[in-house]
Design goal:
The chain is an alpha/beta fold and 405 residues long. The chain folds into two domains: 243 residues, Aspartate Aminotransferase, domain 2 (3-Layer(aba) Sandwich); 144 residues, Aspartate Aminotransferase, domain 1. Helix content is 40%, strand content 13%. It contains twelve helices and twelve strands. The strands form three sheets. It has a seven-stranded mixed β-sheet, sandwiched between helices. It has a three-stranded antiparallel β-sheet with strand order 8-9-10. Helix 1 runs antiparallel to helix 8, helix 2 runs parallel beside helix 8 and helix 3 packs parallel to helix 4. The chain is globular and about 65 Å long. The chain binds pyridoxal-5'-phosphate. The site of pyridoxal-5'-phosphate has 15 residues, from helix 3.
């Protein structure tokens, strides 16, 4: 039973069908002049229109990429490299996905100045702190739409307003929000937005970057420098022969999201609140991570005291249940999550977190099975735990392994 939709989603069968059709038939290079090329080009442009419609954007504001990670890199590096080689200022938050976080750290090494905004105990950025962080050198604000670990939704519209008032470019990593929450790039003053197909029942290795046409002032797309140079695909911004089956699959996935989004959000919010209520009422020493209401419909993140999230994941795996400790990227390392540390948790608390994320194919039976299996797992792990209540322990800062006295 799969309850790790934030890490990746299974492809919708309709997406698979759509892709199969193009994998078999639409092999032409979209840049070729002959009819094979024209067919591929048509599919590409239809997909662009379809995705643009979903974002309330214009087709020529959509650029296809190879992933959410690439879109984040292109947005951030592209904007700052266009304006300055070194020395400019970027504002982001302490809870970004590694695709944004590590890109900003890399830019610091190149001489850029980065402010990482604090978040409150729910993971929400402080708008006053954002205002205060802005300087004459600020070129870009990059703040995620919704967090992949704790599910918290950021005040995007308010951030967009601040960015606009100060005439600063605003990028948002919307990989988790896209397909789950309504997004209006115009109203929200979003200049750049990243999304990824495999988080919305599409294929892996396909993403998109929305880039607002800025008209007179900054010219069209003239404020982003390409990071891939080559044949000039995607209107010069992202060279590489277009992945037509992948892009058509993404487009189909978006169409299905458009049809199902509000219905699905309702269903998943019901599951989410049911899981939170059942677990916090029936298991001791457990707390919710992230915002109680301003959170993704499909995200539950719980902290269990005295035990480690990894042990819970492995035990539940034995029962046929797939969940996660947090982000897929950090779940194989022993480093506590930077997101949980940023909402004020101690490393030992951060190690006890469990993320349950549901999706289109999750059923009520799945939830009941999970709720039946988890209490004995927690009880058994706590019985074995050296971290149990009353014992003295502390963490060795270097390797974060518990040391006993
Ligand atoms: C998954 C994810 C990414 C990375 O997307 P890929 O397509 O896997 O590279 C970036 N940001 C967030 C918030 C994500 O959840």
């Amino acid at each position: 039973m799969y309850l790790d939709y934030a890490a990746s989603t299974p492809m919708d069968p309709e997406v698979v069908n759509e892709m199969m059709f193009h994998l078999k038939g639409t092999f032409g290079n979209a840049s070729s002049l002959h009819s094979y090329g024209q067919t591929a080009h048509q599919i590409l442009e239809q997909s662009r229109e379809n995705v643009a419609l979903f974002l309330n954007a214009k087709p020529n504001e959509i650029y296809f990429t190879s992933s959410g990670t690439e879109s984040d890199n292109l947005a951030i590096k592209g904007v700052v490299f266009k304006q300055k080689r070194t020395g400019g200022h970027i504002i982001t938050s302490k809870i970004e996905h590694h695709a944004v976080f590590h890109t900003c750290q890399y830019l610091e090494k190149l001489g850029f100045d980065v402010t990482y905004l604090d978040v409150d105990k729910y993971g929400v950025v402080d708008l006053n702190e954002l205002e205060d962080a802005i300087t004459d050198e600020t070129m870009l604000i990059s703040i995620m739409f919704a967090n992949n670990e704790i599910g918290t939704i950021e005040p995007i519209k308010e951030i967009g307003k601040i960015a606009k008032n100060h005439d600063i470019i605003f990028h948002t990593d919307a990989v988790q929000a896209f397909g789950k929450l309504p997004i209006f790039v115009g109203e929200m003053n979003i200049d750049l937005l990243s999304a990824s197909a495999h988080k919305v029942y599409g294929p892996k290795g396909v993403g998109l970057l929305y880039i607002r046409e800025k008209g007179e002032k900054l010219g069209s797309k003239k404020y982003v420098e390409p990071i891939l140079h080559g044949g000039g695909h995607e209107r010069g911004l992202r060279s590489s022969t277009e992945n037509i089956p992948g892009i058509a699959g993404f487009s189909k996935a978006v169409e299905l999201c458009r049809q199902n989004m509000s219905k699905e959000a309702k269903k998943l919010t019901g599951f989410r609140d049911h899981i939170i209520k059942e677990i916090t009422e029936n298991i001791e020493d457990v707390y919710l991570n992230g915002h109680p209401t301003q959170r993704l419909p499909n995200n539950v993140n719980l902290g269990f005291r005295y035990i480690e999230g990894e042990s819970i994941v492995l035990s539940l795996n034995e029962e046929g249940i797939a969940v996660s400790t947090g982000s897929a990227c950090s779940s194989k390392s022993l480093q506590p999550s930077h997101v949980l540390l940023s909402i004020g948790q101690k490393p030992e608390e951060a190690h006890g977190s469990l993320r349950i994320t549901t999706g289109r194919f999750t059923t009520e039976d799945d939830i009941e099975y999970f709720l039946e299996k988890i209490p004995p797992v927690i009880t058994r792990l706590r019985e074995m735990s050296p971290l149990k209540k009353g014992r003295n322990y502390m963490f060795n800062k270097k390797n974060l392994k518990p040391q006993f006295h």
